[in-house]
Amino acid sequence: KCPACASENKRAAESNEAAKARTAEVEHWQRQLGKAEIPIRFKDRTLASYKATTSQQQKALSFAQQYADGFDAVRKSGRGALFVGKPGTGKTHLAVGIALEVMGRWNGTALFTTAMRALRRVKDTWTRESEESETQAIGALVFPDLLILDEVGVQFGSDTEKLILFEVLNERYEQRKPSILMSN
Fold this sequence. Notes:
Layout: H1 3-36, H2 55-69, H3 71-77, E1 81-84, H4 91-104, E2 110-114, H5 115-123, H6 134-142, E3 146-150, H7 159-174, E4 179-183
Parallel strand pairs: 1-4, 2-3, 3-4
């Protein structure tokens, strides 16, 4: 048993373990991205890749970075955020950038959906063929550490839709789960 051989074997084993850990980390990240339902168009939108060309965009980027950097405190308080602006100003880019930070840096869960898609998911439970109950559909919207709800205000605004959105957001509020709402 040569000391040099033992040392080399130990280094090889450590390298192998590190490679396995990295593979598991990448697989976990990919599962998180899939569960987050971030549209393919936006999966690569990080805070670092956001181009702030106006003072308002610089302010928005600064807010988003502070929100992501302090997500541990945000999660404890349940503090949400509203991103309101004209189309093409980068609201989705910033929100997805925050979600990627939440999942990658804080090992949290995130869900990106539109208000209409969330409402449709709950309404789809009302058919006999549904395999998901209304409680489960609402629970899936309440579960993530961060919910990003896009296109708020585009839906019809019926009393039923208002009640569903209220139930989801109120449940998240009561559980101190942050939400980001986006609207034009």
